[in-house]
């Protein structure tokens, strides 16, 4: 993926806010960001910024997961591995998603 100078600068700003820029192997068409136990995929949005692709997720084995509901509870699942979607994990994910969405807002 080729990025513009403005997009690279934006990623640098994300790093200064505590986000790590990472690669998620199955999603090489996107820029990965993570903070704590949460991550998201970013897609270029014009020449200057990014938008969230899909939804931010809790990381299971270091990779994005899906949140599911089964008869035995709520889970974050990735390829046969799952972790309970506890109130603490869900709160961490919600805070991450809100912080990332705020960071993606255009500067006025």
Number of strand segments: 8
Report the total helices.
2
Number of domains: 1
Task: Give start-end ranges of low-pLDDT stretches.
Answer: none
Q: Evaluate the radius of gyration.
A: 14 Å
Measure the end-to-end span.
Answer: 27 Å
What's the order of the H and E elements? Answer: HEEEEEEEEH
The residue-averaged pLDDT reads: 92
Order of strands in the sheet with most strands: 1-2-3-4-5
Look at the helices and sheets and give the structural class.
alpha+beta
Relative strand content:
35-45%
**How would a crystallographer describe the biggest sheet?**
5 strands, antiparallel
Shape: elongated
The amount of helix comes to 25-40%
Can you offer a commentary on this structure?
This protein is an alpha+beta fold. The protein has one domain. Helix content is 28%, strand content 42%. It is built from 2 helices and 8 strands. The strands form 2 sheets. A 5-stranded antiparallel β-sheet has the order 1-2-3-4-5, with helices on one face. A 3-stranded antiparallel β-sheet has the order 6-7-8, with no helix packed on it. The protein is elongated. It starts with a helix and ends with a helix. The mean pLDDT is 92.
Short description:
With 108 residues, the chain is α+β, with helices and mostly antiparallel strands.
What distinguishing features does this structure have?
3-stranded antiparallel beta sheet, 28% helix, elongated
Give me the secondary-structure topology.
Elements lengths: L4 H12 L3 E3 L8 E5 L2 E8 L3 E12 L2 E2 L1 E5 L2 E6 L2 E4 L2 H18 L4
Antiparallel strand pairs: 1-2, 2-3, 3-4, 4-5, 6-7, 7-8
């Amino acid at each position: 993926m080729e990025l513009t100078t403005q997009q690279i600068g934006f990623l640098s700003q994300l790093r200064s806010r505590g986000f790590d820029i990472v690669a998620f192997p199955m999603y090489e068409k996107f820029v990965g960001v993570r903070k704590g136990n949460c991550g998201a995929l970013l897609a270029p949005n014009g020449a200057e910024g990014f938008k969230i692709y899909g939804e931010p997720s809790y990381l299971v084995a270091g990779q994005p997961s899906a949140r599911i509901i089964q008869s035995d509870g709520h889970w974050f699942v990735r390829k046969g591995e799952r972790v309970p979607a506890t109130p603490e994990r869900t709160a961490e994910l919600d805070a991450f998603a809100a912080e990332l969405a705020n960071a993606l807002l255009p500067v006025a």
